């Protein structure tokens, strides 16, 4: 188990009722053959089409929203993602189309929009899981009344 210490984050040690010692490790860092091999390393994926060792770092690279605070907030969420189709991402406003107001109330306005890039999804082709996206995808945009123009203040709300 000593060599695996580099592979899995160890949180501690426990002992079951039959007094057998067990290591408490991060479940999401354990690859499984049933999820296929990572495209970037020799490890098995930790969920369908997702390698916990490689993908969180990869998705935090190559984009910015031009605000360091907002970038860092989103990248913090991305770095702890455990599945490809559950990743929070920066969506540039120009990747939304057909924007129209569909509701207004005390908590702000709601708009309909089409997300041109589509949401993340996993394709299961044979025995392989492939990271992909839907085509265009209908989404709702929500505003907060009096929301600040500073992204840092907006994220605090």
- Categorize the overall geometry: extended
* Overall number of strands: 7
Quote the beta fraction: 25-35%
Order of helices and strands: EEHHEEEEEH
Give me the secondary-structure category: alpha+beta
Give the strand line-up of the largest sheet: 3-4-7
Radius of gyration: 20 Å
Which regions are unreliable across 5 or more consecutive residues at pLDDT < 50? Answer: 1-6
- Total number of distinct structural domains: 2
Q: What distance lies between the first and last C-alpha atoms, to the nearest angstrom? A: 45 Å
Let me know the largest β-sheet.
3 strands, antiparallel
- Count of helical regions: 3
Mean pLDDT: 81
Tell me roughly what share of residues is in helical segments: 10-25%
Characteristic terms for this protein:
157 residues, alpha+beta, 3-stranded antiparallel sheet, 3 helices, 7 strands, disordered N terminus
């Amino acid at each position: 188990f000593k060599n695996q210490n580099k592979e899995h984050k160890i949180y501690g040690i426990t002992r079951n009722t039959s007094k057998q010692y067990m290591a408490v490790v991060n479940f999401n860092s354990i690859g499984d053959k049933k999820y296929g091999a990572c495209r970037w390393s020799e490890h098995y994926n930790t969920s369908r089409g997702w390698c916990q060792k490689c993908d969180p770092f990869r998705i935090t690279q190559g984009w910015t929203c031009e605000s360091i605070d907002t970038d860092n907030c989103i990248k913090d969420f991305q770095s702890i993602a455990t599945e490809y189709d559950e990743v929070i991402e920066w969506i540039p406003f120009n990747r939304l189309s057909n924007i129209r107001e569909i509701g207004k109330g005390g908590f702000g306005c709601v708009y309909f929009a089409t997300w041109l890039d589509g949401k993340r999804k996993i394709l299961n082709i044979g025995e392989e899981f492939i990271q992909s996206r839907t085509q265009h995808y209908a989404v709702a945009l929500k505003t907060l009344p009096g929301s600040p123009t500073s992204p840092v203040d907006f994220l605090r709300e």
